[in-house]
Amino acid sequence: MNKRQTRLFALISTGIAVLVFLGLTVDSHRQFPTLTNAQSITPEVTRGKDVWHENNCINCHTLFGEGAYYAPDLTKITQHRGAPYLTAFLKDPSRFYDEQRHRRLMPNQNLSDQDIAALIAFLDWVANVDNQGWPPRPILVSGASIPGTSMSISQQDAASASQQLPPGARPVSGNEDPIALGEALFRSATPVCTACHSTAPGVNLAGPTLAGLATRAEQTLASPDYHGQADTVEDFIRESIIAPSEYLHPGDMYSAGGTSFMPTTYADALSDEQLDQLVAYLASFK
């Protein structure tokens, strides 16, 4: 190839690359309104964005994986926790976290009710942006210690993950034990149960610990304070999954105004067979 041919090759290649780049850029801008859920950007969402910036939330939290990584990524937080929980949390974070147990303290920003609602609207808009699966998983930061060990919950999960495939990636045979299948669902259902519940005694996160759940269920069923429809431990656990407000766990950090903070989407997200498997797993915590 002589100098003239080399020059032509370089110019043509550059021209093609530029055209491809411009085409991809134009196509990206064409898709932005749909991908970003632009039709849902209301004045309240815009105000919520301003609240996010005014209070420097990104100094601790991340959106779409971008931020300080000191506190959890909030890209899908409204899908994992819901507006009632977030409202109560933002009004008084100290009810949910304390520095001694969780090694971090969410400051109370003293937001007005209007600013809290706007911030949640903004985060809900973020949660519905088509982010092409990024970040690939919720970034959960608990810091709560496992009793009797020097490991945090997140460290324990990481150690377990290093020894075996994630539950959602394990091959499952039709003959696998229902409890094993329920454990896989516990760690892979959406919203993921481990985002709010631990299975370690005494370790309460956004939701109460599930250690000793079966024993507590028996006590609840025998209590005059229970007015639900369940007659057995298994029925009570199932009811708690699909209709969490039927019985409100003691403690105002778990509910507000007679409504549990637990999501109510599992009845639609899980099949009856999957619910049976999840109940079997949870009922094993005596």
TrEMBL record:
Region annotation (Disordered) ranges: 151-173
Low complexity: bias regions: 152-164
Domain Cytochrome c residue range list: 43-127, 177-286
Gene3D superfamilies xrefs: Cytochrome c-like domain
SUPFAM superfamilies tied to this protein: Cytochrome c
Keywords (A to Z) from UniProt: Electron transport, Heme, Iron, Metal-binding, Transport
Name of the protein described by the UniProt record: Cytochrome c
